[in-house]
Specification:
The complex is a heterodimer of chains A (114) and B (212). Chain A is 33% helix and 24% strand. Chain A is built from 4 helices and 6 strands. In chain A, helix 2 (14-26) packs across helix 3 (39-52). Chain B has one domain (23-211): P-loop containing nucleotide triphosphate hydrolases (Rossmann fold, 3-Layer(aba) Sandwich). In chain B, strands 2-3-1-4-5-6 form a 6-stranded mixed sheet, sandwiched between helices. The chains are: A alpha+beta (114), B alpha/beta (212). The interface between A and B is large, with 36 and 36 residues.
Chain lengths: 114, 212
């Protein structure tokens, strides 16, 4: 399991983050990001994952993060400041990581070996 | 960017939106596989044009190509809005061909479907760049906190585009649309059954109001 600090994530570009995640997951690692991906990075990760799926070999990823904040101050709304939704994220191979339950602040998951 | 400049830019964008009211908007129907996206797309298009968009099935990833239906005029409560409706393949982070075999498909057919499904997901993701709003279809019998739902909502918020949640399958006894409302209270949500048409008029009203 790799636990990646937010400091390291801040130093990586989107492409580097996605490469790091997919390389790790393809090698059977569970990746925990201290600070989650942006929505655009999440869609890029989904897209990149689809290109890697091979029937019988790699079925994709399981990814879960806490939902972002839902409330903003009136001033942030006036400025249309994006909601900060970068929160802890867990990513792993679909055949090894299974999410059991998730709510706004707790993720329960089961990890199995290959 | 200075605060005054930012406020001026936002006011200008609101002004532009008001004067673009007559423009046809391109709206995508998104959601996880088997949430009822194509059933909803078919119902909307059938109700207002008499046509259908695509076939539906209990096997996930039945829709593996995006289908666009142009110039669908939705009328509700005296208001009318003309939309291009894009029915997209189900978004997913994993596709296992064995799941299709468990539904009774042959191994060859399952592998082919898995391959086409991955291409469909990529197509759905790419369509996000060309839309002006999204109807996110969630299965009201399932946990709403899925990564697909969170990702679609996050993308629409980041792009500052309107999003309407359709809490589908309320015809089923174990549906709990209230869970969806409490999970994503920042967005309008309409409980519906795309299959039976239950509450669909309220959805049309919201579409006209929200995307107009």
């Amino acid at each position: 399991m790799d636990l990646v600090s937010s400091d390291k994530l801040d130093r990586l570009t989107s492409v580097e983050k996605i490469r790091m995640i997919l390389d790790g997951v393809e090698n059977g690692k569970i990746i925990v990001l201290e600070r989650g991906l942006t929505p655009q990075e999440e869609t890029k990760l989904i897209e990149a994952t689809m290109t890697k799926i091979t029937p019988g070999e790699f079925a994709g990823i399981e990814i879960e993060s806490y939902p972002g904040a839902v409330h903003q101050s009136w001033f942030d709304k006036l400025l249309k400041k994006p909601i900060d939704r970068a929160r802890l994220t867990v990513i792993g191979p679909a055949d090894q990581l299974k999410m059991l339950k998730r709510d706004r602040d707790v993720i329960s998951a089961m990890v199995s070996s290959r | 960017m200075g605060i005054i400049k930012k406020i001026r830019k936002n006011l200008s964008s609101t002004f532009n939106k008001i004067f673009k009211r007559g423009k046809i908007r391109r709206i995508g129907i998104y959601g996880p596989p088997n949430a009822g996206k194509t059933t909803l797309a078919n119902r909307i298009v059938r109700d207002f044009t008499g046509d259908v968009v695509g076939s539906v099935s209990d096997i996930p990833h039945e829709t593996r190509r995006a289908h666009r239906r142009e110039d669908v005029t939705i009328e509700s409560n005296g208001a009318a809005i003309t939309l291009d409706i894009v029915d997209t393949p189900g978004l997913a982070t994993k596709i296992d061909f064995q799941d299709f075999m468990a539904k009774g498909l042959s191994e060859d057919e399952s592998r082919r479907r898995a391959k086409e499904a991955t291409e469909g997901v990529i197509e759905a993701v790419r369509w996000l760049d060309d839309l002006e709003g999204v109807i996110l279809v969630m299965d009201a019998t399932e946990d709403p906190f899925t990564q697909v739902n969170v990702t679609v909502i996050g993308n629409m918020e980041a792009r500052k585009l309107p999003l309407l949640i359709a809490a589908n399958k309320i015809d089923l006894d174990n549906s709990t649309p209230s869970r969806i409302r409490s999970a994503f209270p920042q967005h309008p949500m309409v409980p519906i059954s795309a299959l039976t048409g239950n509450n669909i008029d309220v959805l049309y009203e919201k579409i006209a109001e929200h995307f107009g």
